[in-house]
Structure prediction request, 387 residues.
Amino acid sequence: MELNLQWMAWTWQTGLFFVGIFLGLVAMSLWQQVSPTVERVGILGIVTTRGDRFFISLLGSAYIHVIWIGFVDLDLLWASALSIAYAIAVFRWV
Amino acid sequence: MERKVNQKAWFLVLPVVLIVCFSALIPLMTVVNYAFQDTFGGNEFFWAGLVWFEDILNSSRFHDALWRQFLFSGLILLIEIPLGVVVALSMPRRGLGVPICLVLMALPLLIPWNVVGTIWQIFGRVDIGLLGWAVNSLGISYNYTTDPLSAWVTVVLMDVWHWTSLVVLLAYAGLRSIPEAYYQAARIDGASRWAVFRHIQLPKIRRVLVIAILLRFMDSFMIYTEPFVVTGGGPGSATSFLSVDLVKIAIGQFDLGRAAAMSIIYFLIILALSWVFYTVMTAKRRDDMEVGQ
Prediction:
């Protein structure tokens, strides 16, 4: 049986994006198995697990990119760099 | 002694995972793919890059729809939550009145959305509708097909009529769970009606109210059928909320790329708001657990 994915209109760029998300989830799951997460209260004053911090990083990165596309004239790579810095800050302090 | 964890239980959630994949995840991935491309039909797509996102984020039409959406959700929350609590407080706590009130409250919730829209479309008509005719007879100019204010009043009233019962039922369930001893203690202390509400009832129904606010906000933020049936997004674009506008772009204009980019931004807003609500809800639960310990 031939699997027809043409209707999903895949491109290598979007494929790469989803593979990245998927690998991130796999890496987080493996990390959890090797060293289970410990809940903590960070600067937001809420209890977070490592998974929560990953979600906050992804969501915040999406917002950074959307705001960058809409309102900033600089190259989008700067938004990606900012997102990485943001994710590191989230994992360190949230 | 090392504790063994049975990982086989994960297979039990496999059906749910598969259903979510086919009903949500795969369509969402397709939307992401569409958002970076353009099509003229025939299942042929052309790479467009970030054009649709730039277009949507700088579009006054999108800004207006987003503003209308927040205004609508804010308005219905401001009306439905206090009204729902007041009605729940007024409902009888025992006797034959309880099932009668519960059935009456449940009735609007059982009516399909498109039927609710049709009911209010006819109800609001100035020629044959009871509401439209009565309001105009009082000398107040009302016509939801030509006047934006009338259209807004109709859509907000319709939502209040349809969904306040949900808040009532949730608040009533919360009120019923309060032990009688609390009220007895309040009576002994000579507490006023307001003091009982402020210090006993409100804290006890706080959690269900947060759930009610979350449910009503999310649902109202995604409202489509009722305003589409009643006003079709008009007059002009006065009641074109985000979903109404989205369908116009996707199906009316067959502009799949632009609609997909708008869907992703819409999704991100809902995701962020859901996360905030979820965090607030679970934070309260954790507080309660800590107090319980």
Q: What stands out?
A: Chain A touches chain B at residues 6-11, 13-14, 17-18, 46-47, 55-56, 59, 62-63, 66, 69-71, 76 (CB under 8 Å). The longest strand of chain A covers residues 40-41.
